[in-house]
Automatic annotation (TrEMBL):
Keywords: Hydrolase, Membrane, Protease, Transmembrane, Transmembrane helix
Tagged with keyword Membrane: yes
Highest rank taxon of the organism: Bacteria
UniProt KW Protease keyword: yes
Transmembrane segments: 54-76
Protein name (Swiss-Prot/TrEMBL): DUF922 domain-containing Zn-dependent protease
GO biological process: proteolysis
GO function terms (MF aspect): peptidase activity
Organism the protein comes from: Vibrio gallaecicus
Record-linked Pfam families: DUF922
Length: 245
């Protein structure tokens, strides 16, 4: 590949000029990708949120050839997945439902039992480009992976079914409410990083981009608290079994 490497000229400052500059100076652009992750664990009754250590998962420095030096428009992508983990219970009468749930649920915190939860893993990664003068975001990828832990009825008894069919969909609906909040925040992170101004240093750009992510994860934390306060952990939405017993 024929390459002409020339020193950059500081008088090129505007975007349009930079574009021309990039075409002109080959092999001077590199890009990077760093992935950070944040996790939010939500329980139905009483909640616990944990933003894990934001580890640098990968760092790639790529020297692009001349074919890659045209800056593309910034792009965004959000991937969403939902998974379910069920624990089975076997109540043979209405009065056994609560005990069955409490005995079989794998969800507990500080000695308290919970019947369902949603765990949302919100991740962001972004790419940037640098031209020896400034560094700017070219793309952002978001993922929201939510895993629900929920009970599953292993018996078929009329009065149990009657209660289950009223309660269970409400429990799921409440947990999905938390998942929706995670998606809402992922969209905000995505949009805000995409709209960032360029920086003279990529390290500054990265720090600012991640600060945006962390900031919104804290907001998600608050939104989950408010959602649970507002619904009394789903009770006002019919997600509390006590309402049906
Ligand atoms: Zn909740």
């Amino acid at each position: 590949m024929a390459v002409t490497l020339r020193k950059h000229n500081k008088q090129f400052k505007s975007d349009s000029v930079r574009l021309a500059f990039l075409v002109w100076v080959k092999f001077s652009v590199y890009g990077g990708q760093i992935e950070y992750r944040g996790c939010v664990l939500h329980t139905l009754i009483g909640r616990y949120t944990n933003i894990q250590g934001f580890s640098v998962k990968s760092l790639l420095l790529i020297i692009f050839g001349s074919f890659a030096i045209l800056p593309s428009l910034a792009i965004a992508k959000i991937s969403v997945s939902e998974k379910y983990d069920f624990y089975e219970i076997y109540p043979f009468s209405k009065s056994e439902i609560l005990d069955s749930l409490n005995n079989k649920t794998p969800i507990s915190k500080s000695g308290e039992k919970f019947h369902g939860y949603a765990y949302s893993d919100v991740k962001w990664n972004f790419r940037w480009e640098y031209n020896n003068q400034s560094c700017w975001i070219t793309s952002v990828n978001m993922t929201v992976d939510t895993k629900y832990t929920l009970p599953k009825l292993g018996t078929s008894v009329d009065d149990v079914n009657e209660i289950w069919n009223q309660w269970y969909p409400k429990l799921v609906e409440h947990e999905k409410g938390h998942h929706k909040l995670a998606i809402k925040i992922a969209k905000k992170i995505d949009n805000s990083i995409l709209l960032m101004s360029s920086e003279s240093k990529c390290s500054t750009l990265e720090k600012k981009a991640n600060a945006i992510g962390y900031g919104y994860m804290s907001e998600l934390d608050l939104m989950n608290v408010e959602y649970d306060q507002h619904t009394n952990h789903g009770e006002t939405e019919g997600a509390s079994l006590f309402s049906y017993l």
